[in-house]
Amino acid sequence: MSRRLLLISSVAAAAAAMMFWALAQPAPQTMASQFPAGALLYLEAKDFGALLADWNGSAEKRDWLASANYAGFSRSELFLKLGDAQTQFATAAGVPPDYALLTSVAGANAGLAMYDIGKLEFLYIAHIPSARAMNTSLWKLRGAYQKRHAGNADYFVKEDKASHRVAAFAYTGDTLLLATKEELIAGSLRLMAREALPSVASEKWFTDSVQAAASGPNDLRLVYNMSSLARTYQFRSHWVQSNVPELRPFASGLADLERVRGEIRERRVLLRATPAEADANENATGQLLAAVPDDAGLYRAWLHPQAGQAAQWIEEKLFPSATSSGPQSKRAPGFSETADAGSEVDLESRVDERPITETRDSLKALRDRFAAARIDAMLDVSSTRMDADQVYVRPHSVIVLLAAAAWDADAIRTALGSAAEGVWSNAAAGSWRTGAGGVRELEGLVRLAMAADGKWLVIGDSAEMVNAVFARRTRTAVAGAAYAAGWRHARELPNFERMTTLIDFPQQVPGSGEPPYFSANLASLGRTLKRIDSASIVVHDAGTMLRESVVYKLNP
């Protein structure tokens, strides 16, 4: 019995010792806590090596490199600047920063922080086995670098005197570090040694974004300091969306990307610097989204749009021939004497009707109607259709306005007729006739249709599309949003290519070398992304932040 008690006591003592030892060990560092503070953006991948291998073997990479889109990009100022930076880094590092180098340093868990976009100052950290790290071209060339020490490890640094480009790297434990600035790699090694230094993980823009992020798995996480990014010249000049003014109200943001079977999902959060008023009731957009036809190419829904925004969309979508008034001048027009002025040869100038170029605000009556109403939500539905002759492709649009009170259908029809008269004709635009499903069509040369029922107002340039949307107004509402949109890429790409080819054909100059922008450049990008069937986005506004969910559905 005493031996058994002694054995139990020994085991208990050993277990207690192991528990106290474990508690005494410092908590493992997160990847972000190993990056010095001051980054503009931070990117982390759970398995960077696998993502890189997937991209390298993908059809998208092959198609894009052979596309007119890439050809155009390769001649851009941004591409040339990146090429110069790549050459300078190769001179500094002694090895080219190509796919071979990237593959050799692509670890499982990896992080990248960008500190200066213009100077391309970044720090990259990845976990890779020691045998693989010692086999990299960088490690083999360490003798040509200056050896220095920070924290608990050595690092190696080399500078190209001509360009002042710096290459620095270190390997400690199972962690490889690569940087283009010595202070970054030294600071990271000191953080790994648990010195009391500020890190990316301790900065407010980072912690606020991470805390606000929705829980869930992710393959990639991007966190960015929007306030600092918006102040950089390179971001303002080269950001592809060109919407920097719209991003300035946000202090920071985060995007998580997850790959699942048949889909790529992205969860975003954008934190406002100053909270805005939130609207928890998003039912209005839910009613409109339920009315979107299954074959719509593009749809967009807004909650509580401004009256001016609604009028602008109707003018741009349904009255594309409308022109803005020219610049006002306080000087009298000049006189030009011509031989045909006032003669029988000038048969085009009418003296009994006002000229069609006369400046008139043709849509004022419509804008006044919208301004007097309270619009709860707006929906834009667009699609392209091939004509019966299988030659021309025509775009069609429908605008749906859901108001707080019933619309005056007669007044809206009068305002639309006035707009059509002012934009397309100097005479009466025509009368309205009743078509299928209660849709009213404007007779004449123009294509305009509308339907109204209580709070619903549907206006479009296709009676068929107006009827398709109007017939769905009684459907059960779906989940609403502050903004929601969808794009059916597989459906619209062939029509886009055909339409833009017909538009660009007369302008193509043989031997010019530059491919037509729409029918070649953008169309080739669309073909590169042919595996995408559709994309959708849903945005919820909480006042302090925007939450966005993006889903890319892939073809089998």
Description:
The structure is a single chain. The chain is of the alpha+beta class and 556 residues long. Among the domains are: 32-202, no CATH class; 219-272, no CATH class; 283-320 and 360-481, Protein Transport Mog1p, Chain A. Helices cover 35% and strands 25% of the residues. The chain is built from 20 helices and 20 strands. The chain has helices spanning 2-24, 48-56, 59-65, 68-73, 77-93, 99-105, 130-134, 137-140, 182-192, 204-212, 226-229, 233-238, 244-247, 283-289, 307-318, 364-372, 409-424, 463-470, 489-504, 517-528, and strands spanning 41-45, 110-116, 121-127, 146-150, 153-159, 166-172, 175-179, 220-224, 250-260, 263-272, 298-303, 375-386, 393-403, 432-434, 440-442, 449-453, 456-460, 483-487, 532-541, 545-554. It has a 20-stranded antiparallel β-sheet, sandwiched between helices. Helix 19 runs antiparallel to helix 20 (517-528). The protein is elongated and about 85 Å long. The N and C termini lie far apart (69 Å).
Summarize the structure.
The chain is built from 20 helices and 20 strands.
Uncertain spans: 17-25, 322-330
Quaternary state of the chains: single chain
| Fraction in beta strands | 25-35%
Over all CA atoms, what is the radius of gyration? 31 Å
Beginning-to-end CA distance, first to last residue: 69 Å
Q: Averaged pLDDT, please?
A: 86
Number of strand segments = 20
Please estimate the helix content: 25-40%
